[in-house]
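Session log. Operator J.P. requested a structure for one protein chain; no other inputs attached. Running the standard single-chain path with token output.
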Amino acid sequence: MPTAEAVVGEEPPLLAALLHNLGGLAHSRGRFAEAEAHARRGLALRQELGDDPAAEAADVAALAAILEGQERWTEAEELYRRALRIWESVGDDYEIGMTLNGLAAVVRFSGRPDEAEPLFLRALELVEAERGPAHPDASTVRNNLAMLLNATDRPEHALPLLARAAADLETMLGADHPATRDVSKNRDRVVAKLRDASSDL
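Structure written below.
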């Protein structure tokens, strides 16, 4: 397999962009060690350049997501907060929203659901405002918020969010899309949980 340098040469901005993409591809395939190596190298190059805050924030958030996938919650949280500060300085509300979604997830899985909930709510507000309430990214945030509500014994509040997310994803992406199937499964689990709870009364 050719090296990144063999593909784009030694031009730092192109190399940093390629490493970002290679990291994302490895992450999507579950190859976390490879993804982390690419992401860290790309971020180091981006920091050396120091001329594109948005690209740096994207690289920081991507590395945070890779660490999140390895359940390295503390490191991931630090990076999401760092990316959030950069996005706030840039003023990109959509990216702020998506970064808040990632931050909320790691805060939740760090055992702080009360702190995570307002982060998810703010993320949903921003993503809906920037992309529209039916956008797949809004559905992703809505699903994550719903799963937090379900995990904190509020399935009755989770179900409408999941039903909306599943319906929107089916419309936008189709019933067979992996995201649609995942959210639909979450919805069905919550429906079953509520049905079991009502039968125990």
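Operator note: The chain has two domains: 1-91, 92-201.
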